[in-house]
Amino acid sequence: MTWIIMAIILASLLESVAYLYPFTLMVIVVLALTVDQKVYRWAFLGGLFLDLIAFRPLGSDSIFFLVTCFFLSRYKMKIYFGNILYVFIFLLVIISVYDYFFNRILFSAGHFVLTLVLGAFLLSIVPRIFPEKIGSKQKLII
Amino acid sequence: MRSKSFPLLLAISLLILLLDKKNLITVIKAPFEQIVVPFKKNVYQSIYHLRFFPTVFMSYGQLLQEKNNLADLKRQKDELNLKLQLQAAENEDLRRQLGSSLPTSYRYIPAPVIGLSRFLEIAAGSQEGVGDGMPVVVGDVFIGNIINVSKNRSLVRLITDKDMKVTAKTNRGTFGEVIGRVGQSILFDKVLQKDPLFLDDLVVTRGTDGLPPNLLIGKISHIKSDDAAVYKEAVIEALVDITQKQNILIISAL
User: Fold this and answer.
1) Is A39 close to B36, i.e. CB distance below 8 A?
2) ipTM exceeding cut-off 0.95 for this assembly
């Protein structure tokens, strides 16, 4: 749990102070893919924290994160058991939608590359921290 | 994932958003700002200095030499400051004698930068006198305007923001509209084909949409002209790199 809190705080700070990229959303999505329990609560709390830090309307990020996690839960079986390509496509789509809604960025090559690199990094690290949380049927392999 | 918590949390989020839009939870948010603002300021300062580390490392010898020249410059600065004070006092005295009103200079609120994402976040809010719509400058250069104010901090929509539109003119008197583009570029649009537009023309605010007139925006770096179109447009190069700035000024009164 400490790791999750630290990751959300660090991501929110980076996003609001240093670089315009949805780091917090990336963390939430990776958590939703790899850690099954309580992800809705992390999405809700992470969104509220980001709104407070980044001076956005309180609740706006929470709603986006919750809806994202909901869609993930609906289509997780397809994404989880399929090729890693499905995961990256989902990440790219959701990051692009978030970028457009919150940052008015339609397409950014930098964000595209960062999504792939950061996604691969987080998806390879998180299962090592939470190995017991991965479903028994198949592990997500990078 | 248990989906029972999803509708409840979504409903709570929507409720919080609605209450925040109506400014009904400002009292709850205010204590967090007391902690967040100084913390973000420190983080931003640290990241700001880190950006210069490679440059400092590569030019260490040159910096050492320049440090030795600083003492002379400081002495000259002190002398100039003294002359300035004497001349300002003389001007004030003359104005009083001539019966004119107080000097017509803008009133500024200085503010440190504590965050830069889509908007610029500054550590100055309503308690410093900041209000919605106030223009923000760095020197004589217009960089944006205030869009959201709380007690201790404010958000600045930058001139490069996609939602930014400012009526402007060039130093040759050509009128147009400055539109922000994501990233560092700015577009000078809706320029009539017959109006003169040249490279390196300076673009300034026109003063017709609530902003003070003649604030610098940038200079023309590229012109796009299509004879078949009604308007021509140009790309403006910004005069200020906002990532290099730690402090900005808000014009609070004209």
Assistant:
1) no
2) no
